[in-house]
Amino acid sequence: MHLISLKDWSQADIMDVVERAIEIKRYPSKFAHVLNGCSLALLFQKTSTRTRCAAEAGMTQLGGHALYLDWQSTNFALADLQDEIRVLSSYVDLILPRLLKHEDVLRTTDAASVPIINGCCNRFHPTQALTDLMTLQEKLGRIEGIKLAYIGIHNNVCNSLIAAGMKLGIEVTVVAPAKNPAAIDTELLAEANRTGLCKSSDRLKETIAGSDVIYTDTWVDMEFFTDSEFEEEKRRRIELMQPYQLNKALLDGQDTLIMHCLPAHRGYEISDDLINDPRSIIFEQAENRLYSMKALMLKLIERS
Ligand code: CP
Fold first, then answer.
1. Whole-angstrom Cα distance, residue 270 to residue 265?
2. 44 and 99 in one domain?
3. Do 199 and 215 have their domain in common?
4. How far apart are the CA of 48 and the centre of ligand 1, in A?
5. 285 CB near ligand 1 (under 6 Å)
6. 128 CB less than 6 Å from ligand 1?
């Protein structure tokens, strides 16, 4: 069993991880040795704080061991991806790649003999979505029927929220004046529209007023934020997206939770003061990366 996108997972499997994550958070010592002797390989083409550290620390806390492989300083940079994954599979129990291209993540699943966890590609960020579901369950005591507004650029995080919402009955409204072309998944959107659980809107204020949760993410993917070749597109997006910035004026009087997967670009998609606003659950969400990652690793190793 792999985790490439929540599209491929059943409601029962998703809720299994969410409930286990809450249990692990409450009773960490009960799980201190459950993965004794197990190894996890992390393979990263992109930078990370939360995903990498939650997985490394989480595996240690479960009694196992994690290896961090930077793409550029290993032979992944030189060799055939599938050859290297096949070999890595013979050393470890679980592989978490964070790769630029979704197609390459799929290629790892063809070569691996152990479970693969998609650590975020251009199309999906499923480990983030599991954390988001856990955080909503904790904060609101339910998931089904939640009204979530995603305001920003339609990207991999937005896709993962739509996929999660479709499985668990969250009504997702997307207010996104622009899309990341590499994130477009027509099959996902067609299915989401068919279920009636996802819609897009250009009515910003109306959407905010009708939502339990407002979620945003970076306007420019982290690998492009300081890329000089992306400078013109970055300038265009900042101008286009400024009216959609989450700030105190926009959310004035709204009783809503505020979420962001981090890292945030303060002053762009979200104002500095809103990150620490009493309605913000951003840092609880970030902390929960640890528990949901532990629950996920445990499930995949138990099932393999
Ligand atoms: N949210 C998230 O995936 O954070 P990192 O990029 O730091 O892993």
1. 7
2. yes
3. yes
4. 5
5. no
6. yes
Nearest CA to ligand 1 atom 3: 51
Which of the 8 DSSP states describes residue 35? T
CA-nearest of 221, 260, 252, 220 to 236 is: 220
Instruction: Express each pLDDT in 34-67 by its tens digit.
Output: 999 999 999 999 999 999 999 999 999 999 999 9
Its domain, for residue 73, covers 6-124+289-303
Pocket test for ligand 1, best of 159, 289, 292 (most atoms within 8 A of CB): 289
What CATH number does the domain containing 59 carry? 3.40.50.1370
Atom of ligand 1 nearest to the CA of 127: 3
Per-residue pLDDT of 251-275, as tens digits, reads 999 999 999 999 999 999 999 999 9
Domain-embedded: residue 149: yes
- The preferred substitution site among 43, 46, 47, 48 for testing ligand 1, maximizing ligand atoms within 8 Å of CB, is 48
Q: Which tokens hold the place of 60?
A: 């240690």
Asked, for residue 1, whether it belongs to a domain, the answer is: no
Q: Are residues 68 and 206 in the same domain?
A: no
- 160 Cα–ligand 1 center, Å: 14
As a residue count, the chain comes to 304
Sheet holding 39-44, edge to edge: 65-70, 39-44, 94-98
Nearest CA owner, ligand 1 atom 6: 48
What mean pLDDT is predicted for residues 173-192?
A: 95
Number of Cβ atoms within 10 Å of the Cβ of 1: 13
